[in-house]
Recover the amino acids of this structure.
């Protein structure tokens, strides 16, 4: 059953292929979303600035201003969720998108139904938490869930939405080990069937660069070899 949407989310679809836009827009509108579209990066940035959509579906291979450049600009000004569309299957390209702050990615050719499911998943993850927010205090490291802010030795640490979600999730269960598959399910609301487990590895590496004095010998986020990761209080 399709859930009732009282306030339809606004989705921006950015792709230079008219057929792709047509199919994606049709599926999203059928699911109750309000959809705008753009065929190039410049138009996409203009619509993002003016309309502030709830989510952007963004093709990587765009004329003039490519999707990675658009994503970089989006991340400078806010936390709008972004799903990348890419025909590239090489891991470095997927990793680059995640490094730049993409929330998810879908490799072409893709199932429109899968894409709609990814959209719903990312929107659920981006929604305000239903449980009471906490301030997780570990001395020099503080995680304020209400403000979605992290401070280290009193200085605020800039993080993407997904970096914050991952850190907060691990910190809520100190010393508990989570596999990459479990983290995909709990933090990304996804699975290894849809998402490459290297997504977790990339985000852990980014977190360590931001909160660890020595990322190669982490204090907060440790690796349990052959199993996964845990937060050390």
């Amino acid at each position: 059953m399709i859930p009732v949407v009282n306030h339809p989310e606004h989705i921006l679809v950015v792709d230079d292929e008219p057929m792709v836009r047509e199919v994606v827009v049709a599926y999203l509108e059928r699911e109750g979303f309000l959809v705008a579209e753009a065929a190039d990066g410049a138009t996409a940035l203009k619509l993002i600035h003016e309309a502030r959509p709830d989510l952007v579906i963004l093709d990587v291979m765009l004329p003039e201003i490519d999707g990675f450049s658009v994503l970089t600009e989006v991340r400078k000004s806010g936390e709008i969720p972004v799903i990348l569309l890419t025909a590239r299957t090489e891991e470095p390209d997927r990793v680059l998108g995640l490094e730049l702050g993409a929330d998810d990615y879908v490799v072409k050719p893709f199932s429109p139904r899968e894409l709609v499911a990814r959209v719903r998943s990312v929107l659920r993850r981006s929604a305000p938490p239903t449980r009471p927010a906490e301030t997780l205090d570990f001395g020099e490291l503080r995680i304020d869930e209400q403000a979605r802010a992290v401070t280290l030795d009193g200085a605020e640490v800039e993080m993407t939405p997904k970096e914050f979600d991952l850190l907060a999730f691990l910190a809520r269960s100190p010393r508990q080990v989570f596999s990459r598959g479990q983290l995909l399910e709990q933090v990304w609301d996804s699975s290894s069937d849809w998402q490459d487990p290297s997504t977790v590895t990339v985000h852990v590496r980014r977190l360590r660069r931001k909160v660890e004095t020595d990322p190669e010998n982490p204090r907060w986020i440790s690796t349990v070899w052959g199993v996964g990761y845990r937060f050390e209080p």
User: Anything to note?
Assistant: The domain at 10-126 is CATH 3.40.50.2300 (Rossmann fold).
